[in-house]
Design a protein that fits this description.
Largest sheet: none
Order of helices and strands: HHHH
Radius of gyration: 23 Å
């Protein structure tokens, strides 16, 4: 994770390792148990990576600073995209803005007239 030429004891390297592990842990958690807070956490971590070179004082190390800024912008953009996408899917699913009302499941295929091959072999009503 540290950029080329970075010393392992530098603030840039420590920040890259710690934030990288945190982003990976949140991503693994999101795969197993999705919750919108995970995207917010990744967004904050991405924003931190963008400003970290100047806050931690390694903005003059070009490779480390660019590494942090580029990766931070990518993480921030992907987190924002995921938050937008979740909101769009929730709106499409319920017909109302996300967070209003309760999500209702889509109708089962049999409720809209579609039947499985096994069901088609039996007469309707049997």
């Amino acid at each position: 994770m540290p950029a080329a030429g970075e010393a392992m004891g530098s603030p840039a390297a420590w920040n890259a390792w710690i934030v990288g592990i945190a982003i990976a842990a949140v991503a693994v958690w999101a795969v197993a148990w999705f919750a919108p807070w995970q995207d917010w956490v990744n967004g904050v971590l991405g924003a931190w990576l963008v400003i970290a070179p100047w806050v931690l004082g390694f903005g003059s190390l070009a490779a480390a600073a660019w590494n942090h800024v580029i990766v931070g912008l990518l993480v921030l953009a992907l987190a924002a995209w995921e938050l937008w996408d979740v909101r769009q899917r929730a709106t499409a699913w319920t017909g109302s803005p996300a967070g209003q009302g309760r999500l209702t499941p889509l109708p089962a295929p049999t409720a809209v007239g579609l039947r499985s091959p096994l069901e088609r072999s039996r007469p309707v009503g049997a």
